[in-house]
Amino acid sequence: MPENDARLALVHNWLSKDLGIRPERVEPASSDASFRRYYRAFRNAETFVIMDAPPDKEDVRPYMKVTGLLESLGVHVPHILEADVANGLLLLEDLGVTQYLQRLNAGDDADRLYGDALYTLAEIQTRGTDAARELAPYDRELLARELSLMPEWFTKRHLGQSLTDAENQIVADTFEFLIGEALMQPTVFVHRDFHSRNLMVTSERNPGVIDFQDAVSGPIGYDLVSVLKDCYIGWPRERVEQWVSGYRNLVRSRGGPGGRDNAEFLRWFDLIGMQRHIKVLGIFARLWYRDGKSGYLRDLPLTLEYVRDTAHRYPELKAFAELVERRFVMELPEANARVLGASAFALANVQGAAGGAPLPPPRAAAAK
Predict the structure, then answer these.
(1) Which SS3 state, helix, strand or coil, does residue 29 take?
(2) CATH number of the domain that residue 180 is part of
(3) In b/e form, how buried is each residue of 315-336, taking b as 16+ CB within 10 angstroms?
(4) pLDDT given for residue 352 in this prediction
């Protein structure tokens, strides 16, 4: 029996025999970039979500711990109704099927949606000081390990590039600079993947927040850049800066760290964003070459554009900006086309996103 079928049989047995829940049907709900799978169970008018995390590949205990920490801060996360830790099964509150990304792409009021999300983030960052102490630190080792994913998986594997010794030194110097900048930021509770696919539109206590099991104690700008420089949807720079400034005011009004001025806070935002987006270039490529998931390759152009744009904004990154232009920007369309078998129309879109012109906002964003 295939592993997924065996796991699904285990889910059915747990629901019916152990929990006494005999749903009318159980169907796939979603999967993510890990080995976790999710199912939705229907019983009369009720629905539940089952997290299936094979214990030899995933440990549900970090998820359970962070759930408790976030619930103590009033954040709307899926409440854990039942747990079978040994078998890697959790029965969760169902937060529905509507991601922020879906509503933003449909043209819903971005200021309202982001207003809710940023209020929640401010609650986490200003009230979560004690909770953050219970998390692992976003330290030099972790920051460096994440950055190293780009040269291995994006540069070498996806683009097929072999950098010169001088170019490798530019990369190493850039990574050291970004790590130093990250470690100088005020430390807060960091969700670590706070973006439009992990924020659910809910009728009460919006948003619902998911996929937080990798939370750490780290730089204040990290979650903010995750949601406002989202790898799945782009916004004009001017609007992003307005949201960043408004968030700084919100954090400061609640006694949180806002830096000396808007310029310093924006620098924190941009430079930890550079670290995140460099990491994500490696992760998205690895998801294809290691795990066979090609869908994330379509998000590489926007992610690379964030790296390119930030590198050009800061003089400390001038050499890296030139390297990105020379080695990465022109090679990405061909690499993506090779993997995705893109049509001429799709390839043109990829080239436009990764080329020299600033990336245009999506249609829904442009109308705002």
Answers:
(1) strand
(2) 3.90.1200.10
(3) eebebbbebbeebbbebbbebb
(4) 46
